[in-house]
Amino acid sequence: MLEVICTVFFILVVIGVWIILYDTHRFVVRHYRFSSEKMKKPVRMVMLSDLHNYRYGRENSELLAAIDKEAPDMVVIAGDMITAFKKEKFDHTLRFLKVLRDKYPVYYAYGNHEQKITLSKGTYGDMGERFEKGLREAGIEPLRNAHVTLPDRGLAIYGLELERAYFQHFTKKDMPDTYLDELLGKKDDGCYTVLLAHNPDYFPEYAKWGADLVLSGHVHGGIVRVPFLGGLISPALRLFPKYDGGLYTEGNSHMALGRGIGTHSPKVRVLNPAELLVIEVDRARG
What values do phi and psi take at 249, rounded to 5? Predict the structure, then answer.
């Protein structure tokens, strides 16, 4: 009997290790489609979040090939393409972003890791300055509580950068009703509004502000997907977060929440492969 138990345990361990290795080193492509009468011209976007300096193949060749295969009109980024570690090197990520920018328009909103290295110079030294310089040299201007309007498409893209207090552990900080207006201004009602917002916890507030579509990341799918229960834990160290990945609706607003295209601390995924999101928004027929 003991031998049987040991054998079963060994088999389960092997299966578990295989799942971890398999899910941690691959990504899947998810497609979402929306429509709106505000759109003048259809758009196809590839959305990246939470790369955390990860590489798929030499110089991210596998990820680039997957993006090229989707033939997007633009690439939008919902933050955390790098990791805020003191000795972290991000040159290869900047090269990857430069290749993307040479092929497509790139709209980049910061996540909490980009924010950390730019605001905490006492901890990270000149990492933030070097990263921002690299982005400029790549031709990318981050949308840090700013937006761009694409009138030919009827599209406005906003990049939100929340204060660090909104990324605290264990509890969710209340967001005042006027907070998003103070950061972003009033939304452009004449355009279909895409909000790149790294932290999905505030989706109801984003919807109330008026975002038609929120593109978010941060939660990494909960790291471990528990069947029937969803993602296990969020970066805020809350168990079974409400928003862990997929599509959500709040009134007339939608949120496509990616499970991240990379990993970090711990570099583990279980039943939870990384995701590359493809977002299509068509003009609705009246």
Answer: -130, 140
Mapping DSSP onto H, E and C, the string for the chain reads CHHHHHHHHHHHHHHHHHHHHHHHCCEEEEEEEEEECCCCCCEEEEEECCCCCCCCCHHHHHHHHHHHHHCCCEEEECCCCCCCCCCCCCHHHHHHHHHHHHHCCEEECCCHHHHHHHHCHHHHCCHHHHHHHHHHHHCCCCCCCEEEEECCCCEEEEEECCCHHHHCCCCCCCCCCCHHHHHHCCCCCCCEEEEEECCHHHHHHHHHHCCCEEEECCCHHHCEEECCCEECECCCCCECCCCCCEEEEECCEEEEECCCCCCCCCCCCECCCEEEEEEEEEECCC
Q: What single letter denotes the amino acid at residue 169?
A: H
Whether the pLDDT of residue 167 is over 80: the answer is: yes
Tell me, what amino acid is at 192? Y
Nearest 10 degrees: Cα torsion 9, 12, 14, 19: -160
The mean per-residue pLDDT over the stretch 80-97 comes to 93
Question: Are 280 and 68 spatial neighbours (Cβ–Cβ below 8 Å)?
Answer: no
pTM (whole model) above 0.85: yes
Query: Under a CB-based contact definition with an 8 Å cutoff, are residues 135 and 104 in contact?
Result: no
Q: What is the pLDDT of residues 192-236, one digit of tens each?
A: 999 999 999 999 999 999 999 999 999 999 888 998 899 998 888
